[in-house]
Amino acid sequence: MRFDDDSESSNVDDRRGSGGGFPIGGGSIGIGTAVLALAAWYFGIDPSIVLNGSRALQQHTQQEQNTGQPVTASKEEQQSVHFVKVVLHDLEKTWHEQFAAQTGKTYVDPKLVLFRGATQTACGTGQTAMGPFYCPADQKVYIDLAFYDEMQRRFHAPGDFAQAYVIAHEVGHHLQNLMGISGQVHQAQERASSTAQANALSVRLELQADCFAGVWAYYANKERHALEPGDVQEAVTAATAIGDDALQQASRGRIVPDSFTHGSSQQRVRWLQRGLESGSLSQCNTFKTREL
What we know:
With 292 residues, the chain is of the alpha/beta class. Helices cover 54% and strands 8% of the residues. The strands form two sheets. It has a four-stranded mixed sheet, with helices on one face. A hairpin with a 2-residue loop joins strand 3 (118-121) and strand 4. Mean pLDDT is 85; it is low at 19-68.
């Protein structure tokens, strides 16, 4: 990606040096941790890794807090931090204009939290193993930059646009929160008659966030010529790598569609491209179409 304006967003809370985690009384995990552990499924990670490792991770984080040591980062990590802040700034520019124009609502910037290991969130304990996530309760996006290394090593999805897509997807969840979509979906999931039905609603929510990410990329390119040759393919590669079918095949050796929570590789690519080609939030209504 190429940004003519490489201004950084000020809406970044960098907790890498202070840890930002917190101990849980009695050595037990919080409800939020159990809920967020489900996000590990997205990345093909056994949720028990998150649950069983909770105490150790938080003890490590507490030790990090007690040392009071300033954050130490490689040149590559410093570049990643700058890139994340620039992408977030570009997302802010797009959504302040387009969110109001396309929905009639006022856009409110989310905060993006950088952390290492574990950190406190309004949704429970956020941990590295969960990958990037959005917490609607505090309207913050959380990311450990180590995930970008994981994208290259495990998912074979390198590239700056692939990294930007991850951030844009999580900010897409913020849009859904502002639009009231997330709350409606969660209420519908509570009324669902089966786990498979609840999962199907989750898939539609995630695919819409993919589409919203594509809409941002449409305007980043149209108005600021941010995309370079090969960028779209980077995002397609990333979307393909983190499809539920690809992750299940790699981790389980078999695919169980009823357990999908984010959509297949084909679906994720299709909805990302739909947003990228249309630039329209209304074209991202995954809840009004029978075939995803």
